[in-house]
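Escalated from tier 1: thiamine diphosphate holo job.
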Amino acid sequence: MANITLLKAVNEGLRGAMQNDPSVLCFGEDVGPKGGVFLATENLTSEFGEGRCFDTPLSEDGIIGTAIGMAMNGLRPVAEIQFQDFIFPAFDQIVSEAAKMRYRSGGQYTVPMVIRTPYGGGIRGGLYHSQSGEAYFCHTPGLKVVIPSTPYDAKGLLIAAIQDPDPVLFMEPKALYRSVKGEVPDENYTVDLSTLRSVKEGDDVTVFCYGAMVPVVEKAAALAQEKGISTNIVDLRTLLPLDEEGVLEHAKRTGRVVIVHEAPRFCGYGSEVSALIAENVIEYMEAPIKRVTGFDTPFPNTLEHHYLPDERRVLDAIEQTAAY
Amino acid sequence: MANITLLKAVNEGLRGAMQNDPSVLCFGEDVGPKGGVFLATENLTSEFGEGRCFDTPLSEDGIIGTAIGMAMNGLRPVAEIQFQDFIFPAFDQIVSEAAKMRYRSGGQYTVPMVIRTPYGGGIRGGLYHSQSGEAYFCHTPGLKVVIPSTPYDAKGLLIAAIQDPDPVLFMEPKALYRSVKGEVPDENYTVDLSTLRSVKEGDDVTVFCYGAMVPVVEKAAALAQEKGISTNIVDLRTLLPLDEEGVLEHAKRTGRVVIVHEAPRFCGYGSEVSALIAENVIEYMEAPIKRVTGFDTPFPNTLEHHYLPDERRVLDAIEQTAAY
Amino acid sequence: MSTSQLKSVIQADGASPGYDPGLSDAELLHMYRTLLLTRAFDDMCIKLQRSGRIGFSVPNRGIEATSVGTASAFRKDDWFFPSYRDFGVGLYHGVDPTDMMHNMFGNKLDTSKGRQMPVHFSFVDPIHLVSISSPIGTHIVQAVGAAYAFKQRGEDKVCMASFGDGGTSSLGFHSALNFAGVWKAPVVFTCQNNGYAISCPNEMQTASESYAIKGLAYGVPSVRVDGNDIFAVREATVAAVARARAGDGPTLIECVTFRMGGHSTSDDPSKYVPKELFEHWAKRDPIDIFEKALFKSKKLTKKKKAELQKECEEQVIAGVRLATDAPAPGLEEIFTDVYAELPDHLRRQGEMAFDLAKRKGSADAGDGAFPL
Amino acid sequence: MSTSQLKSVIQADGASPGYDPGLSDAELLHMYRTLLLTRAFDDMCIKLQRSGRIGFSVPNRGIEATSVGTASAFRKDDWFFPSYRDFGVGLYHGVDPTDMMHNMFGNKLDTSKGRQMPVHFSFVDPIHLVSISSPIGTHIVQAVGAAYAFKQRGEDKVCMASFGDGGTSSLGFHSALNFAGVWKAPVVFTCQNNGYAISCPNEMQTASESYAIKGLAYGVPSVRVDGNDIFAVREATVAAVARARAGDGPTLIECVTFRMGGHSTSDDPSKYVPKELFEHWAKRDPIDIFEKALFKSKKLTKKKKAELQKECEEQVIAGVRLATDAPAPGLEEIFTDVYAELPDHLRRQGEMAFDLAKRKGSADAGDGAFPL
Ligand SMILES: Cc1ncc(C[n+]2csc(CCOP(=O)(O)OP(=O)(O)O)c2C)c(N)n1
Ligand SMILES: Cc1ncc(C[n+]2csc(CCOP(=O)(O)OP(=O)(O)O)c2C)c(N)n1
Ligand SMILES: [Mg+2]
Ligand SMILES: [Mg+2]
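Tier 2 regenerated the structure:
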């Protein structure tokens, strides 16, 4: 057990999985000797050799396309996309191929692979080093989509993703890479995919969130508490497949719901959470289902602190929802 | 005025726009001498010459990438993607480039282009000739997304899209290409983007739909009428930017809402419509907001008639919503 | 080897002096028989489509020697990532045409459970003939990854990937050749240059001197052969497979051939293919060319030919009968294989679908209970 | 012209016998001055980043001759689709370094309104230097479309596209060269081969003999030149531009150079670039090489050099002062330019943002009313 950053937890998860299973390998742009631009794959090349952790040419299509072939043929590739913003050249391989291979081959060919990618704002990255594209992938049956928000979950969910028989998109909140720390067991362990995490129990308003928004919501909840509002915080963490039962339970519990994410609002992930509730337990709702999200614009650089939901914006929504 | 198919209306819209403005040109795979695999561009090469309607190499990335360059430099390209299922190799050019060019250049460079593409099921096309990917694009600020359901709208919306200063994804319901006919003026006209169309007024349940689902909903409404339920049908037709006011008005009108689309449910377009309502007018809702959609699976071939929402499935939802 | 000169083996009179295919008489006849079987299967599919019994097919006429020549050069335990114009490959390696016919009908016995369009085969047995995808070019780069896996485990197997002239413009081609070159992956790329990509002729597909020359951009050795000359295809492919197996990396083979029909049963090529081209290539039919070689070397008699032809046709007809009799896939097959395990939301959607089918009285619903 | 041999013009002693750049003395000095200005701008940006005054920069050291040599070969009314390592191009054509500095600070006067990261310039005046995009390679194919527009209207302008060695692996490169070849588009492709793509060296980027040879895959003539020899770059580019302008189609130019620093200010190259490489290339500094040529031909004196150097440094410092003083963009700039017209939902979101900023007492909120 050690108190480590989320970044280190990712690195340890990879290391543990590679030690455990010789078919696991890591690759992508600059993941080899350099250790990745965020150092998530640091020291893996020196420990496991160039055959198991290595650089690729500058082609996300090639990275994911070859990873699919490896996965079909007995390996467990963990492919890195340097920034989630650069995943789109591989979109076809992900949505047309990885997600549909098992289905279209009647289960003859499968793609047990993981795509790791840092996502989200907070580093003054402008349009192309800040995006949160989870909704694009969550609309794609056949994929799993996971976003951890703590070091413990990062390691446990990553190992679970690598062991999973299906393709998993593992999105890492880069804003939390070095800003959160937590206790993480030294040995390998898994956190079940498709279970949500209750961050904090509360009675007045339920807030659904994930990734880098979790600490923001925690701050907002602390402020709300000062105003006498008790917030129930849920970290969804596996976005697809979602623990729908769990979401409905938590929504019913307070009858008041706020959903928070960084991505643009329109057709964002929050819309699905809202629609699920409105479709199944609307009769429990005592207030409008609010969304606090990035704006429906590209991601701006200088003004990113206005673009990203902060505790103040979340607090507003909690207060309005509680007071409705 | 002539009574023509939706396919012919598209062809006429292109012809009219090309006659009107020499900077309009059409290109894509097989759109030249062959006239496109559905014949939407039939006779345009012979009428306007090979410089204005022509074939390209087999690269959607190249088609959209070059179209962006053309649009930035004074042309009005109308690029065809042969099936919407094959748009994904161009996803990066669409979401990273076309959608963000105006923003990132502070308005110095703009991309007035149209991407036409047939979408949807009903032709036994299996996984890759049947998809409805609108939600992927509607989550992308900077794009407009349009889906006509009548010959009149097809021509008018297409001409409006071509004249629009921003990139427009124009999705054509291939199931309706030859199965619907309607009166279409001979001359050029436009239908405003971002306005919905009231298909049929009704008092009990509002059904939001678009594209090939509109006739299905009409059939379901006729069956519902027999059971004494009055259905209010709304064709959204411009999905982004959406006429949100209009949606809320129609939702309030009946207090009961059903949303219908072919695409998978999870994070589908219907979730946004539902969330909008739950966020703004939930207090008017007298029943759960139901979605009738394709299943959260890839698109199957032999069993597509079970996969696609039909009037029976829509009727179920209307009845349940009315009876709630 | 040259990237622009066209390499042939069988001469006009059927002789192939100096070339030894390294095959027994039985193996040569198996090649020949596979060509016949491929054509019989192909013709039958077109007939079935014309009469409305299946929805779609992709003519293979003219391309048969490219497929079968390629197939003859690799082992059963190698993996093949096919184009959709490769009926001959599976058939050569023992795939039962009846199993392919189940796919054409999309029935319950189809290995893809009726999910894919016709001609989108998938087999793991008797060979790995990887599930065909409609999006062009995606499989080429997957083949490189699968080849890397062989290499990483120290197995001496190779991956074969086959695609059209249009396929060279795809992203998958670019990534595949690039990665394969850098990784020295054991993979062989076969470009079926059949003159057209649907209606797009070669000169609108690329300005390069040939398709083979594209290998140079990636440091991948390339060769250009007569794709209607089965020995030329075999010779090049045997050499490429040997290179790959020896750890010397990938090869690109351009097989120059011609699509003797429409792109698919939905296409009318008379709108864009000059008649003279069909006439020219009709004289270069790949089966005729091989037949001439076999007659010349006395490996084949007229009688044997007639016998084989009949056998193949009957085999195909038997397959049609079985495929017609097989029922549609069960309704539950919409929901399975999305994931290894059925998630809750799909279970609920499946239950709903079964309930509805039952109320509609649909045959597919079985007893109306979602069985999973 | 060769796709693998490296073409130089300026010899070790500074002479370039037989080469006439076709430039007046003033023009030659303008080239030289632009090199100095580029380096001054570059050094300043790194300093600003190190001291925390800007967030990020991309070192241009070592690449200057490639940018400026390229710039010198095209007209102001041509369009340039830049790499992010092309400070010299805008500066050569009269872009004010202060305007570039506004972008480095992301302030209100930045043409991109503070939306992009530093080094992502966009200009339409005095030249079309097209908005730089972070995704690698996307602009290459856009340049082909823009070139097609020139051709379609019968204008004699050309498009220039510049990208790195890593950029050749991108999808945009493949599509661009393919389409340009088939369309004979008036476009010139300049590959800045600076040895690395972040930490990925040439030999892991491609197995091809050179980057120039990749043109053959697309029927695009190619040439490989010493990218630190400004005359060599200029000679090849002038020829390519002439070809394009004459309607003879695209050219690919590989400029062999070296990145004399980290990939960006966030990168530490000592982890992966052998020290000897830096030492080797330090002896081939592009400014030194050109200086030697100018001294040799007596176009430059020590005094003039010192004068120009001072001038450039002062120009950059003045820019920093102005850029520091300029305020941040107004909050409304989050919402404008998403579309030509502000849609209703963005108006509502903007109003919400202004209201919140006002309540937070944020400086950016102005009077707190959404102004649009
Ligand atoms: C990415 C993608 N774009 C478009 C299509 C539609 N399409 C199907 S086959 C084809 C032409 C393929 O030509 P080629 O690669 O030469 O193969 P051939 O059919 O000639 O064997 C096209 C454009 C597709 N299947 N995938
Ligand atoms: C599509 C995409 N993938 C990854 C990145 C991250 N990235 C930024 S620059 C770079 C390397 C570019 O190398 P090269 O093309 O040689 O240009 P150089 O930086 O050497 O000038 C990478 C991988 C990106 N910007 N875009
Ligand atoms: Mg072809
Ligand atoms: Mg480089």
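The interface with chain C takes residues 25, 51, 56-57, 59, 61-62, 65-75, 77, 89, 92-93, 96-97, 100-110, 141-142, 144, 165-166, 194, 241-242, 244-245 of chain A (CB under 8 Å).
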